[in-house]
Write a structure and sequence with these properties.
The protein is of the alpha+beta class and 100 residues long. 26% of the residues lie in helices and 26% in strands.
Length: 100
Amino acid sequence: MTEPGTGAQRLDAWLWCARLRKTRADCARLVESGAVRINRQPTDKAHARLRVGDVLTIAQGRGEGGRIAVWRVLALAERRGPATEARGLYEDLSAEAAQD
């Protein structure tokens, strides 16, 4: 899944491996809807390159019931594994952001 020699991975592929959505196409649609930022910069490109250390801001749901997730990328994905493996790809900063 990672691109050899670049230290980067497609955003939609990484989100799918991190189990944000059930399909990669769903992850691509989420990005294309403008619900994802990389290092505070809005992106609507599913092919945007993601690197270790990047911080993602993800709007999940719309309206008052919506939730904002803030994740720091800890690793690039080699494959889409079980949920326990997926949780090792990122650090959830959302709780820290809510306390500030």
